[in-house]
Design a protein that fits this description.
The protein is of the alpha/beta class and about 650 residues long. The protein has helices spanning about 15-25, 75-85, 90-95, 110-115, 120-130, 150-165, 195-205, 205-220, 255-270, 300-305, 310-315, 345-355, 370, 380-385, 395-410, 415-430, 440-450, 450-465, 490-505, 520-530, 550-560, 595-605; strands at about 95-100, 135, 175, 225-230, 275-280, 320-325, 360, 390, 465-470, 485-490, 510-515, 535-540, 565-570, 585-590, 620, 630. Strand 4, helix 9 (about 255-270) and strand 5 (about 275-280) form a beta-alpha-beta unit. Helix 18 packs across helix 22 (about 595-605). Mean pLDDT is about 90; it is low at about 1-15, about 20-45 and about 45-70.
Length: about 650
């Protein structure tokens, strides 16, 4: 049976969103929690890295090693100050901006570059603006920067070559959002696919969290990406949160603080800088800051107990960067400006009260939470005035750049304020060993990314994430006798991956029927008829994919399938909360991820080849009462 947390945080009250607010799933004392103090069963913590963060660099095309000891802080600061003195005003301003470029090589001509910047190639973009950083995206957004290891390494080398031959000759911070999981990621296979934060939290294993971050960091560093915008430090106490969810380690502050700290260590060991996000905490909102401006209604006491401990833990661990959130927090700033634009939050709380000395980055300034009230010539100036250092994805870069320049020349932003941000960015680049040579080996990149060792370790981690939440009358594990299996529900790719994994077993014949995120009456009838002629039906649920309809039609599908009297197994492949809509289903599992590795692991659990080990990192409330838990935090059944 499971080893439950029994749904009781320190106060002894049941774990629910409101009770978390009232009783605080964690406390400010959780900043330095150990494996033994985290809820549930935490595996032993990995050893400390042998040396501090930093990235060893050789000559162009050379190899990069593990993180060596960094130079003394005073020597780094002195060198950064010397670099700063030689920089023109425009070169300093350029260091503030993190931009996107279109194309798979530095010399690729692309209309996306022409549209945004008026020049055709990434190299020309770097020469024109001399930015401090570039962020990579895959083809889904448009830039199409990340295809395969050699190509990414070649692009990174080309961009760095352009940077060090331009202006002040300062190397780039090359960043990416590679959180792991199936929600926010950029690098696909052959890069090793890891299960993501909430899935990792289900294992309760600090070793798994550390190894996951180290693998991601090692592969990013191999292709010349030196900063990952991860880990997510938000405490997801709101099941209706549309933007965080499985990106969080869960609803318990202690667990989140411990695993955020562990992930920072892992990224550093892998050779990349880390960035805790989204400050001061995006976990209790039902608005997506990509499209709107969420409000966090927590009191200052609640923020201290729930939201801030993971950031405090990250700071204690030496996190390089903290990314702000486009959220309104009236208890911290009654003016109701987004945190990114709030001096009381960025400078007063993060810089002065929490004592963070690293780089503060904005979340993307092209998001709705920033652009609604702050046009392109206002947002970057307000973010700098608030205390931010890096301006990420500022829209209309010409206008944004000119606005900062005019603000400095007019005294609206003092030169001392500008210099303090540039100095921090330069110190960061020196600590990361980007000087004098920021290049990587394409050959080594191909060898490291998706290596057999990484994939083997990822498979072991992923198998431990699968959580069995409901199992009535021995519905699972499935017998290994010959059977016909209907694989239906949401997601063409996940369904195909699961059907393929099941079909590899002797005697198992599979049929796949995709019903979509909002199956209509005809689709439900088709799936129900198919279930009648199969021994087992496995359904993949993903209410998040259904938008505001929130999975109601998927629930109707599952109820109709269950009514057939055949064996029905349901798996929530993103958020585990989906069970609220069909609480009487015979068997329900959660994978927190719909990638192929998770579907392969699910198949092994279904047939008892691997026992389910996961424990819920969040409580599942009832549908009609968010304060009443259907299944508590820590629940998890075992064979």
């Amino acid at each position: 049976m499971q080893q439950p947390f029994s749904g009781e945080p320190a106060s002894g009250q049941p774990t629910s969103r409101r009770n978390v607010l009232a009783a605080a799933a964690g406390t400010a004392a959780a900043i330095g929690v150990t494996a033994s103090s985290a809820p549930g069963t935490a595996h032993a913590a990995p050893p400390e890295p042998r040396s501090g963060p930093g990235l060893e660099r050789g000559t162009e095309g050379g190899t990069q090693g593990s993180a060596p000891a960094t130079s003394s802080a005073s020597a780094v600061r002195a060198r950064a100050a010397a670099l700063l003195q030689r920089m023109s005003l425009d070169e300093k301003i350029g260091q503030l901006f993190v931009i996107e470029v279109y194309g798979q090589t530095a010399d690729t001509e692309h209309d996306g570059n022409r549209k945004l910047y008026g020049v055709p190639t990434p190299t020309e973009v770097i020469r024109k603006y001399r930015p401090g950083g570039v962020i990579y995206f895959d083809a889904r957004r448009g830039p199409d920067n990340v295809r395969e290891p050699r190509q990414i390494a070649r692009l990174s080398n080309g961009l760095q070559r352009a940077a060090v031959r331009t202006g002040a000759r300062v190397p780039l911070l090359i960043s990416i959002d590679q959180e792991g999981g199936s929600v926010v990621y950029r690098m696909l296979e052959p890069a090793t696919q890891l299960p993501g934060n909430m899935a990792l939290a289900a294992t309760r294993s600090t070793r798994d969290v550390y190894d996951s971050a180290e693998i991601i960091g090692t592969e990013l560093a191999a292709v010349g990406i030196n900063q990952n915008y991860a880990p997510v430090a938000d405490v997801n106490i709101n099941p209706a949160n549309p933007v965080i969810g499985v990106r969080s380690f869960g609803s318990d502050t202690n667990l989140c603080a411990q695993f955020v700290s562990t992930a920072v260590r892992g990224y550093h060991r892998g050779g990349v800088a880390s960035a805790a996000k989204h400050f001061p905490g995006h976990g209790d909102t039902d608005v997506d800051s990509h499209t709107g401006l969420p409000e966090i209604k927590h009191t200052r006491t609640e923020l201290d107990r729930i939201d801030l401990p993971p950031f405090r833990a990250a700071i204690r661990r030496g996190v390089d960067t903290i990314m702000t959130a486009h959220i309104v927090v009236p208890s911290l700033d009654p003016s109701r400006v987004p945190a990114t634009m709030s001096r009381p939050i960025v400078t007063g709380l993060l810089r002065e009260e929490l004592g963070f000395k690293g780089v503060i980055a904005t979340d993307a300034l092209d998001m709705g939470g920033a652009t609604t009230d702050f046009p392109p010539d206002v947002a970057p100036v307000r973010a700098l005035q608030a205390g931010c250092d890096q301006l990420v994805l500022a829209p209309q870069l010409d206008k944004a750049f000119a606005a900062v320049r005019n603000a400095v020349r007019s005294g609206q932003i003092t030169e001392a304020r500008l210099n303090s941000s540039v100095l921090r960015i330069l110190e960061h680049k020196l600590h990361r060993r980007l000087f004098p040579s920021p290049y990587v080996s394409e050959r080594r990149a191909a060898r490291i990314v998706g290596s057999r060792r990484h994939r083997s370790r990822a498979r072991q981690i992923t198998e431990r994430t699968v959580t069995l939440i409901r199992n009535e009358n021995g519905a699972l594990p499935l017998p290994r006798t010959p059977a016909t299996v209907l694989v239906t529900g949401w997601g063409t790719g996940p369904l195909a991956a699961l059907a393929r994994a099941i079909g590899e077993r002797r005697g198992q014949r599979t049929t796949t029927l995709e019903t979509g995120s909002r199956p209509n009456t005809a689709k439900i009838a088709e799936a129900t008829q198919a279930a009648h002629s199969h021994d087992v039906t496995v359904v993949l649920a993903n209410a998040s994919a259904a938008g505001k309809e929130d999975g109601a039609a998927q629930a109707q599908l599952i109820e109709s399938l269950t009514a057939t009297g055949r064996r029905v197994i349901v798996t929530g492949v993103r958020l585990p909360y989906d069970l609220r809509r069909f609480p009487d289903v015979p068997a329900y599992l959660a994978t927190y991820n719909y990638g192929t590795p998770s579907m392969t692991a699910l198949a092994r659990v279904l047939y008892g080849e691997v026992a389910p080990h996961g424990e819920l990192p969040v409580p599942i409330p009832t549908l009609d009462d968010p304060d009443r838990p259907l299944y508590p935090f820590g629940h998890g059944l075992h064979y």
